[in-house]
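Pair request: fold both.
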Amino acid sequence: MALVLVVVGGWFGYQRWVAPDCSGELRLTVAAAPEIAPAVQATAEAWMADGAAVDGTCVAVDVTASEPVDVAAAIAGQHGVSLNGVGQASGNAVLPTVWVPDSSTWLLRLRQQAPGFDPGSGASLARSPVVVAMPEPVAVELGWPQKRIGWSDLLKTITTGTRLRTGIVEPSRDAAGLSGLLSLAAAAQAAGANGAEAQRVTTAALRTLATGRAAVREELIARFPRATDAASIASGLGAAPLSERDVVEFNARKPPVPLAALYLDPAPLSLDYPYAVMPGAEPARVAAAERFFAQLDTPAFRSRLGGQGLRGPDGTWGKDFSAPRGAPSPAGADPTPSTETNSGGTAAGGSAAVIERTLSSWSVATQPGRMLAVIDVSGSMLETVPTANNATRMRVTLEAARRGLGLFDDSWALGLWTFSTELSGSRDYRQLVPIGPLSSQRSRLERELAAIRPKRNGDTGLFDTILAAYRTVQEDWEPGRVNSVVMLTDGKNEDANGISESALIRELKRIVDPDRPVQVVIIGIGSEVKRSELEAITKTTGGGVFVTEDPAKIGDIFLQAIALRPTTVPR
């Protein structure tokens, strides 16, 4: 009896000793990039086994491996905005309390588009430098590992007619692809002696990369050579911006042709795996997120990172990390993007404005479209712009259009109209160039743009022109392209004899065809623009409204506008 009592008493005592000193349950949901998720999951399990709690309440941590682009789409949708190239989230997307994407550039882009998005913390959990991955025989030909190679060297290599096959994961959806694109674009800008030359070099580099573009990382990596013979190496992928972790994982499989990781100068933005607590979370969950972060800021977590091919946030690595040949340690010189929207960025261009400008240029330069550009020539376009050395609104608008034209390759189809009031008899608009292949009418478009002059006493016949332009683009709609009307105007509708706003909306609703979509993109210049009437139009047709009160900023706005893409393009 005494023995039984001792055993039973000892068992109950042990149970009370190991039982967590908490009650109830508070669930903390964490969405982490797939490559870091196992380390985060293991840490969560260890914390829960040790009695994870906040203010006496037990904490259960649910870690989900989630592609950053999918979570970004869900967050953008929650805020009623969209990210360039990302598209819409699935209808059943559920936002986590904590998000660990692979890069702070996702936070930058979301903040740029949705000012109400203000996540907490954002401290880095890990790091993986972005490198240029090359089959080792190809890298040796360029002087690796003895020679230190820069982005300017790579730019020259890929734009001088060599046989080096380059590729990139769609940079609007992949952080490593975006980092490489920013660095290459910065090198192209530096290589240009003037604005026009810089744009030419940049556009050439973007189009070269686009020939080897892949939708997802696995697709791109599968293109590297799988055999050691010269023919396989020559026909396989020769260079692509990837993360250091991608190279580590690839080489761990012992492929016939290993990859070299080239750490180019200047160092591109690293993947930095920020710990972002979503805004609007309940105080108890925020407290739980803070406690969990403390578990991730430990040597034990950093040790787990090594097994996933990741460095610690300071750039050093722990045990089980298999460093690529020539890898710098620590990688403390690698820049990470500032999460401030107005930051100056880094040498690679880490500000939100630079990111959006680069992605817009990428979209315009690499994806074919069919567009009718319609330019306001009313008398108000003669007003001067103090921030543009007192050039007229007309001049800064035409300069933006001219530079945009330089980005389009010959796969585009373009047309050009102007509008005011009674510009062609009783019509408010005039066709200068019909929509046609840019390959055959680029010079004509350039001449017509240069010859545009405002109508000194003309008003803004906006609504009649929008309807006529929409019908024109819809009439010869082409599959496989983004069919769009892009209007540039500095005022609201002033045509008393034309169609009313309500009648325009009714007519557009009647003729809109979901199987033959036409995007209407309206660029408003100056303080006289009435955004509400413009948005009522684009909500009916699809597209968007871009307004800047400072006409000197129309260049960036113009790029964003013409880069706008629907989620899907009917074929």
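--- second member of the pair ---
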Amino acid sequence: MLESNLALPFPNTISNDNWMNIGFKKRAGALIPLFTVYSGNSFGIGDLGDLKFVVDWAKLTANSIIQLLPMNEVGPLFCPYDALSSFALEPAYICLKDFASLKKERFNPVSKDNSYVDYTVKKEKLRLLWDVYLLQDLSEEFAFEDFQKENAYWLLDFALFKVLKDFNQGKPWYEWEDKFKQRHRQALQEFWQDNIEQITFHMWLQWVLFKQFKSAQDYARVNNVFLKGDLPVLVSRDSADVWAHPGFFKLDFAAGAPPDMYCAKGQRWGMPTYNWGNIAKDGYLYIKEKLRYAEKFYNILRVDHVVGLFRIWSIPYNDPEENQGLNGFFDPKDENLWGEHGRNILSILVKNTKMLLCAEDLGVIPKCCTDTLREFGIPGNDVQRWVKDWNTRHDFLAPEQYRKLSVAMLSTHDTTNWPAWWEDEAGTVDEGLFVRKCGGQRGIDFSMIKDKLFDPALSKYGRLRWREGVDSVDKLVSILNEGVLSGGVRPKEHLLDFVDLYENSYREKDKLWKHLRIKGPMREKCDVEIMRVALKISLDASAVFCVNTIVDWLYQAGIFENDPYQYRTNTPGTVSPKNWSLRLPISLEQLFRHPVNKQIRKMIVDSGRI
């Protein structure tokens, strides 16, 4: 029986059983990357023990969903969407306080720079855990044996991969000796025998992670809090998955995203695309096993970049990296195949898990994807800054116009937080994209028109804010033509892409200010009042779920100083030690005592999401 009087919006979908496990009920939640939090018991990074503390905070504030980023083991860039395995968990998240032999170790809850995680802590944790492991007597640890048997599909391959990678000084598997790269059976058996202790160590780490994560999940269940996981659509080229199953991947290509109004050259992620034909040959066992393991920990699962299941932007692997996604193409190339392709894979996902699937459907989404999500009863994402009438009014939609079958939010892990968007991005266009549009056959000298179109005082971080005086499409076209170097006037019909950028960004802040319904003139800087009203819009949305980032929730607490632009989890298309390492400026203990919790709870209760 459903938990509320809300009826399923589409009562005869293949997701009905998945919904029955959750209840079609309006809920609020928080996206909290585990590395972003820490407690007095942490060792340099949030851990699975801290996850129970996060559950306590969620219960205190009436949030009933905790959304995590992928928890899989990461590589040297610490990107959870470029993991070493679709199965193995990140050992940095092991809670050390569970081990009696480490009780005398001095746990350091913060790094040298408390603003970001220092991932050298992972090496130190593994050193301590190796000492713990050597003290273990696993000869009669039958639960460990059962864990190995139950996860035979991936566990030994992963442990072998890890030790072989150390043996090869960290080189990617495709640079190893042929006998290891091509998985010669005898060579692997000999290596396993010679390195059994190290291989078992990595399997033991995964067993510890499994037990601690399962304990946190059980704690969340008892407290009526759902854990929402994240299924990356892709896996690292240098991963145990690709090494063990190279035929499942198209190694001549790198996945990415085409150019858009936020990334002028598109994006090149680097991970190989899937060879779905080969994956299908064994009944999609690879996909089913991923789901089976994820189901041990999560009630809800976010399917990352769901449109990639329908068609994915594929870039020739040897194309220069500076081109990013410019020279890619959609795979399958035939648009008529996209619908059937995505429907087939999504049906495999839904039918092989009890978890409720949610889809990350942001960006340019073909109709076949949107229609399939609705038909299957899978919620998409409605991010406030993009929930607009893009074609006619060029204005934001009211809360009641959000999709009922969606997750409403102000920001994502790949965007700026909402205050930074308000101050630095609303009403702007991407400078790189605009410059690229001016070039080529257009022959428009951007330097000649830049200051006539854009206000330098309000333009930063590669975003250009329109001048107030550019108050019509005709004015825009006229100024663009002032920059034409040769070939005569460019008529409006040849500049429609510029017109589209203009109509959907000019005076964008003023348009949203009307929706916020705050008295007085529009304010450039975000403050507590503006933040609370923005949060209220997402809470009042007709969307079944509302999940906001922990930074957006806590911005009304006054704990973040300086420019809000610095408080972001990831900047797509960049490699930086500040990506995937942001941490809150206060500990979980301090957060639990903070008066903002009462305000958050009141907002959620008043919205009916409880």
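Observation on the second member. Residues 1-5 have pLDDT under 50 and may be disordered.
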